[in-house]
Amino acid sequence: MKFRKLTVENYKSFQFATEIRFPVGDDGRSIFLVGGMNGAGKTSIMEAINFCLYGAKADEIFRNINRREKARGNANVSFELVMEMDDLSELVVKRSWSAGVADDPKPRDLAERLVVVRDGKRVSVQNQEIWQDFIRSMIPPGITQFFFFDGEKIQAIAADDHSEVRLKSSLEAALGIQYINRLAADILYIKSEERKGFVEISDEDLDFKQSELKKERSKLGRKQHERDSIKQDLEDFKAQLEDARQRFAAAFHIEPETREAMGANEKKRIQAANRLAQLESEIRALCEKTLPFAITGRLFDPMRRQIEAERESAGSEAIKENAASLAKRIVRVVEEPEPIYRETLSVEKMAELERRIFRLLKEGDPQGEVTRILDLSDRDAARVLNKMEALEGGDVFLLKPLLEEKRELISQVRKLEGLSQAGLLTESERELFEQLQVDMEGCSTQIGRKSEQLRLLEEEIFALEKRIGDIQMEIEKLFEKHHVSKEKAEFIQECDAIAGVLNQFVVRLRKNKVHLLQEKTFEMYRLLSSRSGLIKDIVIDDKSYEVRISDRNGHEIKKSGLSAGEKEVFAVSLLWGLAQTSQLKLPIIIDTPLSRLDSTHRDNIVNNYFPNAGEQVIILSTDTEIDKDYYRTLKARLSGAGSLVFDQQRELTTFREGYFWEN
What we know:
This protein is of the alpha/beta class. The protein contains 19 helices and 15 strands.
C-alpha cells in the first residue's frame, strides 16, 4: 500500500483545501521529503491521516478548526486520502465534519460523514461501521505507531527503562494475538455454557474448587484495578514532568537581547505601567460610584422575562373574569348577522354551546399560568424597565472591559520585566529555577517508583492468572468424573483441544516472531549505532520480553548505561523491527526524527535508515534536521520534496513543491 495524495481543509492553519501529492519512483519505491519550520503544520499532516482513517471525537475536531473560518461561522473540516493498494487498485477515503447552518456552532453540532471510493466508484457507506472495520483491517490502528511516529515517540521508548510491558503489547498487537486470545476465550465460554446442562456437578470437592476459583478471580480483579490506578498515577506524573520541563524551557532558555531591544522594551514597559495606573484610577472611580449595579446587572434579563410573563398572565386572568359575557358575544357572532351553519340550532343547543365556551374561557391555558413574584402595575413595570435600560447604557458596564484591559496590561508588564541578559537571574527567578528542578526530580522519582510498583503488580497478576488456570484445570478434571452425555463430552473435548491448539499456536507464534524481531532490530541497530562494533547481540526473551544487550566478551550491557543517542537509535531500530515483524507493507511517516541526535547518529539515520525504512517513506523535517548537506545526500533517492510555508500574519499554511532551498 502507498499513499498517493492527502487533502486537508479548514484544519488548524490549513485554512483552504491543501493537496499534498506523494510521487513514486520508477522502481516503485518512494522517499518523499516535506520541509516545514516549527508550527508550520508537520504534525497536522500526521493527525490528518489518522483522523481520515479512524475518525476522531467531535470536541477534538471542533477545537482545531481554523480560527478565521470558525469566526466566520464555517465549522466544516474535511480530510481526503488517496491510496494505491497492493493489487494496484485505488482506494479513496474522505472523512468530513460539518455543523450545517448553525449560527453559533458547538462541538455537538458536528456531524461526521465517511465517503469511500474504490476504483473510481463510490461505494455505499450506509453502514459506516462495516467500512470502518474494513479500513481498520487494512491498517490496524494498534500498529500504526510502528509506521507513523515522531521524535517524541522515539524519546518515550528511549526513556522507558522498563519497556517489557510496552514491547509485549506492541508485538502482540502487530501479530493480532489479541484476536486469537479472544477466539480461545469465546470457545471456553461456549464450553462453559454447554457444561451448565450437566447433572450431578454439586459435590463438595467441586464446590470447594469453585469457591477457591471465585476468590482468586476476585483477588485478580483487585490487582488489575490497582494496576490501572498505578498506570493512571504514572501517566499523571509523566504529564507533570513534561509540564515542568516546558515551564523551565520557557523561563530560562532564551536568546540574549541587544541594547536597542532592551531600551525599546523598557519604553514599552513604562508606557504600559503608566496606562495600568490610569486604569486602576478609573476602576476605583467606577467602583465607588456604581459597583452595586454591576452586581445586580446579571438579574436584569430574568426580571424582564418575569415582567413580560406576568403581563401576559394578567391578560389571561382578565379573560377568565369576563368569561360569561365573552361566551355570549361569541355565540351571537356565530349566529348574527347570518348563521354560519346550515341547520338552525335549538335554544337548548345554543345554551349548551354558550356553556362550553364559558368553561373553555374560564379554564384558560394551564400551561400559561405564572406565579406573580413582582406583581407590578403597568406603570410600575414600565418604570422598572426604563430604569434597567438606563443603567445598562450607563458607566457601570464599562467596568468589565477596563478589568480585561488591566489583565492584559499586567501580563504585558510582567513579560517586559523578563531577564535583561541571558544567564543573569533575579532572586525570585532563582527560586523558580530551584523549584522547577525540585518538581522535575520529584516527578522522576515517582515515575521510577510507580514503574517498579507496576512491574511487581504485573508479576503478581501473571502468577494469579497461572493459579486461576491451574484451578480451572482441576475443575475440568472434576467435571470429567460426572455423568455427561457422550455428545456433550465430545464437544467439550473438542473445545479443549481447539483452545489448546490456539494456545500452543500463540506460544510458537510469539517465540518465532520474537526471534525475528530481535534479528531485525539488531540488523538495523548495527547500521545505525556508533558502537555497533562493541555490541555482539541483542536478545529478547520470548516470555518476559526483557531486552538484553551483550558486548563482544559476552557481558551484558544495561540499556540504562547507553548514551541518550544510543537509546534513541535503539528505539528507532525497535520500531523498524516491529514494522518488519508485522509483515504489513504500510507507508512509514516520520516527524522530526533527528532533533536530539548527534552528527554521527544523524549520518547513520540518513544513510542507512531512511533508504531501508520501507517501500514508501514520508519524512517531515525542519531545515536544521535535513539540512543542505543531508539533502544533497538524500536527493538522488528522493521521489520528490515539498515545503510547508507558514504565513504568520494570516496564520495560513500552504504547500509548495520543492524543499527549503529549491524554487
